[in-house]
Amino acid sequence: xxxxxxxxxxxxxxxxxxxxxxxxxxxxxxxxxxxxxxxxxxxxxxxxxxxxxxxxxxxxxxxxxxxxxxxxxxxxxxxxxxxxxxxxxxxxxxxxxxxxxxxxxxxxxxxxxxxxxxxxxxxxxxxxxxxxxxxxxxxxxxxxxxxxxxxxxxxxxxxxxxxxxxxxxxxxxxxxxxxxxxxxxxxxxxxxxxxxxxxxxxxxxxxxxxxxxxxxxxxxxxxxxxxxxxxxxxxxxxxxxxxxxxxxxxxxxxxxxxxxxx
Length: 262
Description:
Layout: H1 2-35, H2 40-50, H3 55-77, H4 86-124, H5 127-133, H6 138-176, H7 181-191, H8 194-220, H9 226-259
Helix pairs in contact: 1-6, 2-6, 3-4, 3-6, 4-6, 4-7, 4-8, 4-9, 6-8, 8-9
C-alpha cells in the first residue's frame, strides 16, 4: 500500500514538473517572438524539412486512408442501398478527423523525433551552452524557427492529406466499386461545407503546435547522456501522439461549436 502511494506521488510530481516546464517554455516562446528578430533563414530551413520533405509520406498515407475508408463505407452502405452516400461520408470524416489526425501522427513520428533528437544531442555536446556564451538564446534560435515553420507547414500538409484522400476515395468508389459518379459528387458537394475544411485546417495547426512544444521541451530538458538522447526522442513521439489524441476530443467540441454552431 505504501509502495502504491509512493508511485502515485512520484507520478503526480512528474506531471506537475512537466506541466510547469511546458508552461515556462510556452511563456519563453511568446517572449522571444515579441522581443527578438525572427531568423527567417532558419524558418525557411525548417519549412523545407517539416513541409517539403514530408509531402510524400503524408500524400501516400492520406491516399490509402481515404481509399480504405471509402471501401469500408461502401460495403456497409450497399446493404442499405445508400452507395451514393459514400462520398459525403468520406469527405466529412476526412475533413473533421482523419486528415488532421493521421497527418499529425506522421509529423510526430518524423518531425517530432528529429526535433527532440537534434536539440538533446546539442545539449549533450554542450552546444546549447556554446550558443549562450555567444549571446544567442536557445529558445530564440532553436524553438522559434520550428514553431513558425510548423504554423505554415502543418495546415498545408493537412490540406494535402485531405485532397489526396478524397480524390482516392472517388477512384475507389466510382471506377472500382461502381458507385454512380454524378450522385457521388453531387452528394459530396451538398453535404460537405467550407466549415468542415476549416475544422481540418484548424486541427492540423493546433496539433502541429502541440508537436513542436512537446518535442522541443523533451530536447531541452533531456539528460546529458546517450541514454537521455534516446529517451527524449522516444518520449517526444509518444507524448506528442498522446497529446494529439487526447486534445482531439476537446478540439472536436470546441471547433464544431465555433464553425458549425452545434
